[in-house]
Write the structure tokens for this entry.
Amino acid sequence: MSMGASAVGDLCAHLTFTPGSAMALVAVLGTTISPYLFFWQAALEVEDQQRRGAVPLRLIPWQAAPQFNRIRADTVIGMGVSNLIALFIIYATAATLHSTGISDIQTSSQAAQALRPIAGKFAFAIFATGIVGTGLLAVPVLAGSAAYALSEAFRWREGLDRRLLQAKSFYATIAVATMVGVGLNFTSLDPVKALYWSAVVNGILAAPVMAVMMLIAGNGRIMGRLTLPGPMMIMGWLATFVMLAASIGLFVL
């Protein structure tokens, strides 16, 4: 299949309404709009503001434009690059594994086979390097997001700029989450299925988190003059509806 035909297939995809396809759709959406990203990015913005001693933008809305431009550029570039990489992973897997009848991937060694046509005998070394790099990136983010979420829920002191003794519960959560992640490597849990199911859970949890976020973003008493404009409100609620519809479809089909 040529790249042109693949692109047309992406834009005009043939959808099948089955339990398996519904679950796959929720998983894809869950990896794109993950609830933990909301906590992580919001917490880091507040932490950066406090570190710089800056006045909250709600009190000085006329100075918000440069900050919004920075956040927008960071989000657009990050999401664009990550989704482009995901698209080529799908292409590579479809052209190698799926084309030969392999559709039930249970181990990382099977997944590494997708690199063999390009990397040859170095496929497993390259794949292992990618897995290690992804782990080094993902573990701090996931553990940190959990720590920020729990700290905000229980009003613990939080922040990576604080010393250990200043935020004991915050750092304890990071340590426990990291140790749990390491401990899973010594269980019989299928890592591929675990990743898949975690994406499904993220997709299900995203809809209510997005709904609450949209209610806050449109509330003038909370946001002041920085409430979302009409077009962004429409796009935000539309994205929330899509996430909710996908989650409902998962349980209905």
About this structure: The mean pLDDT is 83. Residues 64-96 form the longest helix (33 residues). The two ends are 31 Å apart (CA to CA). Residues 24 and 200 are 8 Å apart (CA to CA).
